[in-house]
Design brief:
- This protein starts with a helix and ends with a helix.
- The longest helix is centred in the middle third of the chain and has 19 residues, at 103-121.
- It has nine helices and no strands.
- It is an all-alpha fold.
- It is globular.
Length: 206
């Protein structure tokens, strides 16, 4: 099976479902380091992304992802909402013109998402952010790209989950968590958890 427009819409739909299911957990996590709105932002934002793609009669995977990102940006113009929307739009730009993706193409999609967030957020791995969940997941997908789509995505989800858990002990250098200084080391980074949920949704959608 290769990834196409139908699968792209399915991924975005599952992603919206996963974020809705985890909304309360994200609110709780975020209330310890931020203003507690992350759960709402992610559930509303990815619901808008899914609807934005679903409304389009489009075979181009890249264009669908770009439309999804645009819809998310309009719905949730917060910092994290904008970062996630930008990641989707970056993936869209990278895949424009492609109607199917093989395993390498799926890796390209997630790498472009990571690159978009990294560029806009000006963060690096190890700084207790979304990237600490996504980057290990993308690496694991690439390392398992010879396997089936499902196995590759599952490896990515497991690595992203481990990456998110590993943010406990890291010093936050961005956002409100950074104000806590050394105290921030005790906390799980909510952004990295969002990354692990994205990878989980990817695996579940296949």
């Amino acid at each position: 099976m290769s990834w196409d427009a139908v699968q792209t819409k399915k991924f975005l739909s599952v992603l919206a479902e996963v974020m809705a299911e985890q909304k309360d957990e994200l609110i709780e996590l975020d209330s310890k380091v931020g203003d507690g709105d992350l759960g709402l932002t992610m559930s509303d934002g990815f619901a808008a992304a899914s609807s934005g793609a679903e409304a389009k009669e489009e075979e181009d995977v890249g264009k669908l992802l770009y439309f999804a990102g645009k819809a998310m940006a309009a719905k949730v113009p917060s910092t994290m909402g904008t970062l996630m929307a930008n990641g989707l739009m970056s993936a869209g730009k990278a895949l424009k013109g492609r109607t199917t993706l093989d395993n390498a193409g799926i890796c390209d999609m997630m790498q472009a998402w990571e690159d978009g967030v990294r560029k806009m957020g000006k963060a690096q791995e190890g700084e207790k952010t979304f990237l600490d969940g996504l980057a290990p997941g993308v690496r694991a997908m690439k390392e398992n790209a010879e396997k089936s789509e499902k196995e590759m995505a599952k490896a990515g989800a497991q690595a992203a989950e481990a990456g998110a858990q590993n943010t406990v002990g890291m010093l936050a250098v961005h956002g409100r968590a950074a104000i806590r200084g050394e105290e921030s080391r005790k906390l799980l980074d909510p952004g990295a958890v969002v990354a692990s949920l994205i990878m989980k949704a990817l695996a579940q959608s296949l």
